[in-house]
């Protein structure tokens, strides 16, 4: 569980990711209508929680880890695909926003258990005190 300065640093890192992604999106002349249309698409992964916390966490983490948009951006650069680059920047902006507000990658123990706020650990620590 991240607390204090470490949590703040993770959130500032997310804010920087959001700002850099949006700035690069503007720089490449991205269509802001497309940005508005796609910015929340990664949250469709929440539907995985209908099948339990393990499936939900896997789906959420696939859509909220940086490897996906970085691979897409790399492919976009290598292939010259402007749309792939634009989508990857929107995806990165979404992840940055989530990190900035303190939402992290999920553990299978429950929706609120993230790499930033592991509520199960917080509960165990409180019970032990």
Over the alpha carbons, how many angstroms does the gyration radius reach? 16 Å
Number of domains: 1
The helical percent reads 55-70%
Strand content: 5-15%
Multimeric status of the protein: single chain
Largest sheet strand order: 1-2
Which runs of at least 5 residues are low in confidence (pLDDT < 50)?
Answer: none
State the major sheet. Answer: 2 strands, antiparallel
Net shape: globular
Order of helices and strands: HHHHHEEH
Total helix count?
A: 6
- For the secondary structure, the number of strands is 2
- Give the end-to-end Cα distance, rounded to a whole number of Å: 17 Å
Which structural class should the secondary elements be placed in? mainly alpha
Average of pLDDT? 90
Provide structural commentary.
The protein is mainly alpha-helical. It has one domain. Helix content is 66%, strand content 5%. The chain has six helices and two strands; from the N terminus they run αααααββα. The chain has a two-stranded antiparallel sheet. It starts with a helix and ends with a helix. The mean pLDDT is 90.
């Amino acid at each position: 569980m991240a607390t204090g300065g470490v949590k703040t640093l993770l959130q500032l890192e997310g804010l920087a990711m959001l700002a850099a992604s949006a700035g690069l999106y503007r720089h490449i002349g991205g269509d802001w209508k497309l940005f508005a249309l796609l910015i929340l698409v990664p949250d469709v992964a929440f539907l995985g929680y209908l099948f339990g916390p393990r499936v939900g966490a896997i789906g959420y983490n696939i859509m909220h880890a940086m490897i996906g948009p970085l691979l897409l951006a790399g492919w976009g650069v290598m292939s010259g695909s402007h749309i792939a680059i634009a989508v990857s920047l929107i995806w990165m902006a979404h992840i940055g926003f989530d990190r900035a507000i303190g939402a992290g990658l999920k553990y299978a123990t429950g929706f609120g258990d993230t790499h930033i706020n592991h509520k199960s650990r917080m509960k165990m620590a409180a019970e032990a005190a």
